[in-house]
C-alpha cells in the first residue's frame, strides 16, 4: 500500500484547525482544499502515467476516513473530486486531453453535477435534455446539490442525450459562459462544502463528452457509483470514529466531584460507549470488506457497493446520536465538537443515492429484479 502519512498529515492539521470556523461560518474550507491541491492526494486514485498516485479503494478509505474526522466538509469536497475524476480517467473527453493530468496534479478541482429537482435521489435519470446546434452541444440544466459550486474548476454534468432516452456526461469548465451558481447554501451539516444549485445554460463542444454518445449511464453506474458509495461510507465511518473517540475522552475525564468518580464509572455510560465502539468496529470491517470487493471484484461486489453506504450512513446516525447522549450538555454546548459530527453525519444518509433508496436496490438485487430504471422508464413511472 502507498505510504500516505507524509501527504495526509499536513492536510489533516490544516483541516482540523479550521473545521470549527468552517462549520460556524458556513464557509468553504479554502485552506484545506489548497493543502489538498499541493499534497498530490487529488490524484490518489488516478493512474501514475497521468501523474496520479495509482491508489485504490483501500487507500481511498484511509484518506477519506481520516479527513472526515478532521473536517467533514473538506472530506466531502475531496470525495466529489475523486468521484468526478474517476469517470474522466475511464473515458477521457477527446477535447480535454490534459484533464486527467490536471485533476491528478491539483491544478483542477472537480465535482459532479448530477442531481436535479425533477428526478431527486434518482441521480442516474436527469430530466434535462441537451440539444445540438452548429457549434456543438447546448446544455440546459438546473442542477441541485452541487458540491464545491463556484469553487470547482470543472463540473462533470449529466444530461439526457439529444434526441434519445440515454444519458451523456460532459466535462464543463467552470469559466464556460452560461455556467453559474444559482443559489445559496445553508445546511444542517457539512456547512462548508458549498452544495448550492447551479445553472448550466452553456454551449460546449461535442468532444467534451465522456465516452461515446449515450454512454453516461454506464459511467454513472459502473464507475461513479462504486467510488462515491465507498467514499461516502468512509466519510460516515470517519465521523463516527471521531464521535466515539471524543465521547470516550470526555466521559473518562469529566468527574462527579462529590463522588470522586468519572462519568465513565456509570454502568449506563460504559454500556453505551461499548455499543458505540462495537458498532463502529463492525461497520469499519464491512467498509474494508467492500473496499476489498472493489479492488478484487467477486460475484457479490455490487451488493457491497449498494450496502456499504447505507450501512455506514445508518451506523453514523446511531453512533453520533449516542455520543451526544452520553456527553450531555457538554456535547450540546458545542465545545466537544460532537455536535458537528452529529450534524455532518446526517448528510450522508440523504445524499443520492439515499440510504433508503440503496436498501431498496439491495432488496431488488437479492430478489433478482432490475436495479435501475432507465430515464424513459423513470419518466413513465413518475
Question: Can you walk through the features of this model?
Answer:
- There is one protein chain.
- The chain is of the alpha+beta class and 382 residues long.
- The protein folds into three domains: 5-105, Butyryl-Coa Dehydrogenase, subunit A, domain 1; 110-212, Butyryl-CoA Dehydrogenase, subunit A, domain 2, CATH 2.40.110; 218-381, Butyryl-CoA Dehydrogenase, subunit A, domain 3 (Up-down Bundle), CATH 1.20.140.
- Helix content is 53%, strand content 13%.
- The strands form three sheets. It has a four-stranded antiparallel β-sheet with strand order 2-3-7-6, with no helix packed on it. A three-stranded mixed β-sheet has the order 1-4-5. Strands 8-9 form a two-stranded antiparallel sheet.
- α3 crosses α6 (216-253) and α4 (72-90) runs antiparallel to α6 (216-253).
- It is globular and about 80 Å long.
- The model is unreliable at 374-382 (pLDDT under 50).
Amino acid at each position: 500500500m502507498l505510504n500516505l502519512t507524509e501527504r495526509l498529515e499536513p492536510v489533516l492539521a490544516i483541516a482540523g484547525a479550521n473545521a470549527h470556523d468552517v462549520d460556524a461560518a458556513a464557509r468553504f474550507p479554502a485552506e484545506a482544499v489548497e493543502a489538498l491541491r499541493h499534497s498530490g492526494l487529488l490524484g490518489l486514485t488516478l493512474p501514475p502515467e497521468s501523474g496520479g498516485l495509482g491508489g485504490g479503494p483501500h487507500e481511498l478509505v484511509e484518506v477519506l476516513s481520516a479527513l472526515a474526522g478532521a473536517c467533514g466538509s473538506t472530506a466531502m469536497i475531496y470525495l466529489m473530486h475523486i468521484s468526478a475524476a474517476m469517470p474522466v480517467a475511464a473515458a477521457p473527453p477527446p477535447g480535454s486531453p490534459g484533464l486527467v493530468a490536471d485533476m491528478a496534479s491539483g491544478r483542477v478541482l472537480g465535482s459532479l453535477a448530477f442531481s436535479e429537482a425533477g428526478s431527486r435521489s434518482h441521480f442516474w435519470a436527469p430530466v434535462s435534455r441537451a440539444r445540438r446546434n452548429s457549434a456543438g452541444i447546448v446544455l440546459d440544466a438546473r442542477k441541485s446539490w452541487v458540491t464545491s459550486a463556484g469553487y470547482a474548476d470543472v463540473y462533470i454534468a449529466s444530461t439526457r442525450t439529444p434526441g434519445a432516452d440515454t444519458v451523456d456526461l460532459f466535462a464543463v469548465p467552470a469559466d464556460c459562459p452560461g455556467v453559474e451558481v444559482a443559489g445559496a447554501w445553508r445546511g444542517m451539516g457539512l456547512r462548508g462544502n458549498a452544495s448550492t444549485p447551479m445553472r448550466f445554460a452553456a454551449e460546449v463542444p461535442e468532444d467534451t463528452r465522456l465516452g461515446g454518445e449515450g454512454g453516461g449511464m454506464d459511467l454513472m453506474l459502473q464507475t461513479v457509483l462504486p467510488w462515491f458509495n465507498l467514499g461516502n461510507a468512509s466519510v460516515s465511518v470517519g465521523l463516527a470514529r471521531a464521535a466515539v473517540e471524543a465521547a470516550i475522552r470526555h466521559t473518562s475525564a469529566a468527574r462527579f466531584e462529590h463522588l470522586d468518580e468519572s462519568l465513565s464509572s456509570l454502568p449506563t455510560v460504559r454500556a453505551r460507549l461499548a455499543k458505540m465502539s462495537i458498532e463502529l468496529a463492525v461497520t469499519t470491517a464491512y467498509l474494508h470488506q467492500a473496499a476489498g470487493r472493489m479492488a478484487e471484484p467477486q460475484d457479490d461486489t455490487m451488493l457491497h457497493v449498494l450496502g456499504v453506504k447505507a450501512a455506514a450512513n445508518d451506523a453514523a446516525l446511531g453512533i453520533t446520536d449516542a455520543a451526544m447522549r452520553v456527553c450531555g450538555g457538554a456535547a450540546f454546548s458545542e465545545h466537544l465538537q460532537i455536535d458537528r459530527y452529529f450534524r455532518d453525519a446526517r448528510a450522508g444518509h440523504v445524499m443520492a443515492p439515499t440510504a433508503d433508496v440503496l436498501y431498496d436496490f439491495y432488496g431488488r438485487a437479492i430478489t433478482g429484479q432490475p436495479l435501475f430504471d432507465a430515464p424513459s422508464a423513470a419518466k413513465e413511472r413518475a
